[in-house]
Amino acid sequence: MSNDMETDDTPPDRGGADHSDSSASEETPSESHERERERDHERQRGHDDSERQRGHDERTQGRETDEIEKQTIDDLDELGSSVDVEVDGEATIEENPSEDDLLGGLRIDSTQEIEVPDRLVDQVIGQEHARDVVLKAAKQRRHVMMIGSPGTGKSMLAKAMSELLPKEELQDVLVYHNPDDGNKPKVRTVPSGKGEQIVEAHKEEARKRNQMRSFLMWIIIAIVLGYSLIIAGQILLGILAAGIIYLAFRYGSRSGDAMIPNLIVNNADQTTAPFEDSTGAHAGALLGDVRHDPFQSGGMETPSHDRVEPGAIHKANKGVLFIDEINTLDIRSQQHLMTAIQEGAFSITGQSERSSGAMVQTEPVPTDFVMVAAGNLDAMENMHPALRSRIKGYGYEVYMDDTIEDSPEMRRKYARFVAQEISNDGRLPHFTENAVEEVILEARRRAGRKGHLTLEFRNLGGLVRVAGDIARSEDAEFTTRDHVLQAKGRARSIEQQIADEYIQRRKDYELSVNEGFVTGRVNGLAVMGQDSGIMLPVMAEVTPSQGPGQVIATGQLKEMAEESVQNVSAIIKKFSDQDLSEMDVHVQFVQTGQQGVDGDSASITVATAVISALEDIPVDQGIAMTGSLSVRGDVLPVGGVTHKIEAAAKAGCEKVIIPAANEQDVMIEDEYKEMVEIIPVSHISEVLDVALEGEPEKDSLVDRLKTITGSALPKKGVRGPSSPSPQ
Description:
This protein has 727 residues and is an alpha/beta fold. The strands form ten sheets. Strands 22-23-21-20-25-28-29 form a seven-stranded mixed β-sheet. The protein has a five-stranded parallel β-sheet with strand order 9-12-15-5-16, sandwiched between helices. α22 links the parallel β28 and β29. The longest helix is centred in the N-terminal third of the chain and has 50 residues, at 29-78.
């Protein structure tokens, strides 16, 4: 094939030239001159034709390049924004599915029929705003800072960004010995793949020099030994001289080995932009380091350029540097990171007590990376303001959503998420249709909001893996709904296990009261962590004061809980006919443990307990309650109502009082629905009407409370904040 191409590339005039040469002896000088002029014309026409063809090819190639670039931009614009579930086999997607269809119209026998996208950006579910930002940042090579809860897809988006970066010529970085100053190695960058060739060439040259040197050394040693043995007759002196010659040659060969460069960044096998995850990296791993050399004298030391180690900022050159929990970096590392971002290059020097210190410092090494910083909300507090300014000034800041609105399209994507987890693990049996539906139901519960699905996929993926492990241990062909239900029990968080242990222990020691009537005692509800409900009793007592009256609260209360107690005291002062200036109100949060109470969801519990103690009216112990309280008596929404209701059911309570605004957020398991009655309330008077015992006394008390505390909120249509207090 190569011969044909060479023949095609041969200009047409060459054939004529060959024939004219064979018959040149028969031509006259004038004919020969004319023939030469014709050949010149032919060559010129061929050159003009070649130039025109080259210009046409360049224009065509330019148009094709423009079209490819335009298509690439169009593809980037569409990436992730309209990706839906792709199915193969006999799976189908129904149009206009019903609201009760948990799979959003997707008809599958198992997740085996769902196609998993190849690109990471297509695998990201939800986070539409964050994806759009990453797409724009990738095209323009901008820095990005992503803030949000753990497990919402920050690291996946960062990896996806490395796949989306415009293709650039990657570079290898070589460090050379500096003959003028050994402590200042020289740095050279070459196209990727050339670094290995250069190092091999230097090694081959050094190998040849060493072979020649060794050959010469053994000749000299042979001569010395022969002279000392045959002529001088001093064999010991000859052996000593041979040893000295050997050491001298070996010592001299080290200078030749020092000429071999150190390849610190090798991108020969890299097909996409580099991605470096430096989460939790120490200074040397992030910024580069110089290894310690125990032999630093006597000519035995390792050349300084051979001890240079690249940092993540150097390996990420032309790619992405990802740092999660950015605020955990020490201030010095953050300052150096700012320099690397600003200058696009950073010298490597000793960064730790095990390195060679600051004696060795290379020339600046390229650090032209795109930085993706991530963290929780507290990350911005301890982050260097100048570093954040550089990211914000040369890039984007984006907040990661915790939940997303429930829709048929999103349910289909959650089914695809299950298929992705199975594909990534590689060992789990595929999930049946009912098993996927149970996972989506759990996503609803974990969202904690009506009509939403959680976006904390790491925890949800843990449920998928546990369910798959259970099915695999049983040698089941598919993971079924029963396996998912078992996994929900086994995959409980530590907080939930502790909460269940507390509930059981209180039952054993009869510390949980769930029947009868007791004055000044109310069953409150709280959450531990994010998904663990627990019942905490609150007790109140009113005593004569020996000084100015005050409200005294105990039980490891934190700042928000203390403020909620003070807000409750405002209602009590306005409500009570007694002079509270002469009385102390004691409030105890029973057995809160070391974790204490943080949040205001116990406000209605405190108010009910104190009012019960003041009026000496017992409280129904079969009722548990949660809710925040305004100074006007309005019951405000709180978080975690689903887990709190389940905790009350486990403790044996028959009724649970919750804010009316949270009624839409209740998504308890089926096993608890028949165990408890849920009572939504919007005002403290409604709470007392349900919780207190006795008709005449209670009715008089409630009527009086209604007259002195007017509601500041409308009775209907009360909606809570998007992220109410979780306690």
